[in-house]
Amino acid sequence: MRAMYTAATGMMAQELNVSVISNNIANMRTTGYKRQRAEFQDLLYESQRRVGSNTSDQGTMVPTGIQVGSGVKTAATTRIMSQGTLTSTEKDLDVAIRGEGFFQVDLPDGRTAYTRDGSFELDANGKIVTVDGYTVNPGITIPNNASNITVNSLGQVSAIIGTNTTSTVLGQLQLARFVNKAGLEAVGDNLFLETAASGTPQQGTAGSEGFGNTLQRYLEAANVNSVTELTDLISAQRAYEMNARVVTAADEMLQTTASLSR
């Protein structure tokens, strides 16, 4: 019976929907995480009476017809790239982006990754790196005798070197932005990669046209709203239950039909 297969597609769609929601909830405390949303599309239709077909020799036509759908499919898991809440950390190398842009990270294989996670550290050579040890573009090194490290709103990294009384600019963090940032490929570790859908990166400095500002001693929290996610979870669960109920109803109808042939 068609209804069983149609309802099965609905159950599979809602199972994936719950998986997406659970991943959002699991990453509520992940720095720079961007929530996802499952998008669905209806499947092909079978036209049992085509719209606009002739019903007589005088040219009268079927006004609506009969079309029976075959279920639902998952079209995409869209990533919502809205700004997350900025949280104070009081750590010198924690840097958040307020507005558009991604930090650029040099991966060991030569590729460039992009992230909103600005929880940076220093490696053994004093270079600014991510928590996984990847160099943050453009590879700024802070000397051992540096103190009072500051990162201004333009991404300039400065520090007082040795016994100097004035700050020395050590470098400037570079940002990148994309025409379609939702088209970036998430690869884990709070990193994204460029894709054909995202477009090529447009590089620039914080505070320039189209780019956000950097904020020292702050981190961007995940843009996950717990109330919204729990509401969506309940809706997905109820939709799954209703599709399962359709399968049960279709099975009972088949049992009734089978009993008539006895």
- Look at the structure and give the mean pLDDT: 91
Instruction: Find the count of extended strands (DSSP E, 2+ residues).
Output: 20
Gross geometry: elongated
Helicity range: 10-25%
Proportion of residues in β-strands: 25-35%
Distance between the termini: 20 Å
Give the helix tally: 2
Rg: 27 Å
Q: Major beta sheet, specifics?
A: 5 strands, antiparallel
Q: What is the H/E order?
A: HEEEEEEEEEEEEEEEEEEEEH
Please give the domain count.
Answer: 2
Query: Structural class, please?
Result: alpha+beta
Uncertain residue segments: none
Structure notes:
- Keywords: Bacterial flagellum, Cell projection, Cilium, Flagellum.
- The chain is of the alpha+beta class.
- The chain has 2 domains: 114 residues, no CATH class; 135 residues, no CATH class.
- Helices cover 23% and strands 32% of the residues.
- It has 2 helices and 20 strands.
- Strands 7, 8, 11, 15 and 18 form a 5-stranded antiparallel β-sheet that branches. Strands 12-13-14 form a 3-stranded antiparallel β-sheet, with no helix packed on it. The protein has a two-stranded antiparallel ribbon with strand order 1-4.
- A hairpin with a 2-residue loop joins strand 16 and strand 17.
- It is elongated, with a radius of gyration of 27 Å.
- The chain starts with a helix and ends with a helix.
- The model has no long low-confidence stretch (mean pLDDT 91).
